[in-house]
Amino acid sequence: MVIALIRHGQTDWNRELRMQGRTDIPLNRTGRQQARDAALRFADGGWDLVVSSPLGRARETAEILADALGIELGGTFDGLIEQEFGEAEGVPVVEIRERWPARDIPGMEPDAAVGARGLAALAEIAGGHPERRVLAVAHGTLIRRTLATLSGHDAEHYPRLDNLSISEVRHLDEAWHVHTVGGVEFTTLVSELDARAAGVPATRAG
């Protein structure tokens, strides 16, 4: 079983570097074009269907991908929704760091809950679509925290994921494993993650 976690296309708040969270901001023109362009990259992947978070920016991205790839558009999964950032939603990211340096944002969903929710979503998708290759359109923080929970690393050490980046997870030997992160092989990235955890600079091979 292979699930590719795809970050949705660009929104105006992405462009303005504002925190989105659960706020339902739609794709902008660039985001829709990013989805159409990504379909060309995904065309040879043998994907069977596309599912998504219920937020509009993820759902529209999924619709564009399914239409362009000529594959089934599946349902939405609440577990794929973005982390709730409470009072920080709509606030410029640089301002968030100044106002809440300890990440004690009022109304924010606990970080630890996000990765667990992502893992539950993977299980739900796999249970409903066994042995299929699935594109799951979700959100940057949700994807990073899910991958980090699987690999045992700190999500803050994972690289930022671009819009329409693809991160594959595979179910092998009764467990999920991270295969790629933003299109980069996990085996290439793991030394960088370990170095960041140790507090030393790291340079990715290649």
UniProtKB/TrEMBL annotation:
Species this chain originates from: Agromyces agglutinans
Alphabetical list of InterPro entries matching this protein: His_Pase_superF_clade-1, His_PPase_superfam, PG/BPGM_mutase_AS, PGM_Phosphatase
Cellular component, GO annotation: cytoplasm
Pfam families associated with the record: His_Phos_1
Gene3D superfamilies attached to this UniProt entry: Phosphoglycerate mutase-like
UniProt name for this protein: Histidine phosphatase family protein
Lineage per the UniProt record: Bacteria, Bacillati, Actinomycetota, Actinomycetes, Micrococcales
Record-level Gene Ontology MF annotations: phosphatase activity
Binding positions (substrate): 7-14, 57
